[in-house]
Amino acid sequence: MATETLLAPYLRALVELRGSDLHCKAGSSPRVRIDGRLLQLDAPPLKPDVMRQMLAEIIRPDLAEEFERTHEADFAYSLPMNGGRFRVNAYRQRGSIGIVARRVAAQAIPLSALGVPPVLNRLALENRGLLLVTGPTGSGKTTTLAGLIDHINQVRESNIVTIEDPIEVLHSDKMSMISQREVRLDTADFSTALRAAMRQDPDVILVGEMRDQETVKAALSAAETGHFVMSTLHTIDAAETISRIIDFFPPHEQNQIRLMLAGALRGIVCQRLVPRADGEGRCVVMEICVNTGRIADAISDPQKTSTITDLIKEGGYYEMQTFDQHLVSLIRDGVVTLEDAVEVASNPQDLGVELRRQGIIS
């Protein structure tokens, strides 16, 4: 029987407490993040030599060499006997090792169980184009993307290629065939894997994150040539997402990128997490942008890009919604409290005005 790793008891505590992240570093007791709050475990401070051994027990040999050179490493790790799956980041601070492990779902959670707007079911089944899921770190982008892939896998015969760093949620073939490629393990980088994917007869390509100009351009080209591409960005709303993509490129290329994006984009799903009123964890709040003719016009024309948020607000017929519109419905239904909603609202003052207009608050 294999000896238990030094990290395992803390990872099990993370799972039992239903936390999202485990933080371990020399000189401090381990801490876990639960519903956004960072709480200290009842454990002694970790010593530098313990941290070195902790990392050595769980890191792949090739990444161990890379860590010695770069002092950074990202990889996936699973506890045995279905104990949980985690995305791990190892780093150095003040000369010693630190580890942050994020708990991820071992299997995809269906969209129906995630409490997301029904429009995501339709967006997931687009035949071609680009769908972006955005939000800050820890907002559940990976979970939403896994749900979208699972929905395709349940209802459509497709060849799905995912490019991830690292692979977090594991998918098994159902109606679709899914190939999951991990950067540095199965391929050199995102852009190399994207170019190779074009020769793998894909229907759907998932790019874990669009980090640079080359990856963005390759994703847009794949979306333009008849493939359905999904990816993520660390942006707070749809308008910022459009601006961020355009800003990847030098000024002389930006008009071309605007036209490519206006033609290829199918939708942008931006998300944040807010505590539930019943205390049972957090629920997702989403801004949904569907690429209608008016949205495409606003993307292609720099003078109109600033109108995107207003177009979303007026786009209820196309199942669009802003963050604050979604928050209004969650407050009305008693899912979240007014106080917590104000903390994540895009415009707390406008949120209050709309709640008064609907008679939800006085």
Automatic annotation (TrEMBL):
<dbReference type="InterPro" id="IPR001482">
    <property type="entry name" value="T2SS/T4SS_dom"/>
</dbReference>
<feature type="domain" description="Bacterial type II secretion system protein E">
    <location>
        <begin position="198"/>
        <end position="212"/>
    </location>
</feature>
<dbReference type="Pfam" id="PF00437">
    <property type="entry name" value="T2SSE"/>
</dbReference>
<comment type="similarity">
    <text>Belongs to the GSP E family.</text>
</comment>
<dbReference type="InterPro" id="IPR050921">
    <property type="entry name" value="T4SS_GSP_E_ATPase"/>
</dbReference>
<protein>
    <submittedName>
        <fullName>Type IV pilus twitching motility protein PilT</fullName>
    </submittedName>
</protein>
<dbReference type="InterPro" id="IPR003593">
    <property type="entry name" value="AAA+_ATPase"/>
</dbReference>
<dbReference type="InterPro" id="IPR006321">
    <property type="entry name" value="PilT/PilU"/>
</dbReference>
<dbReference type="InterPro" id="IPR027417">
    <property type="entry name" value="P-loop_NTPase"/>
</dbReference>
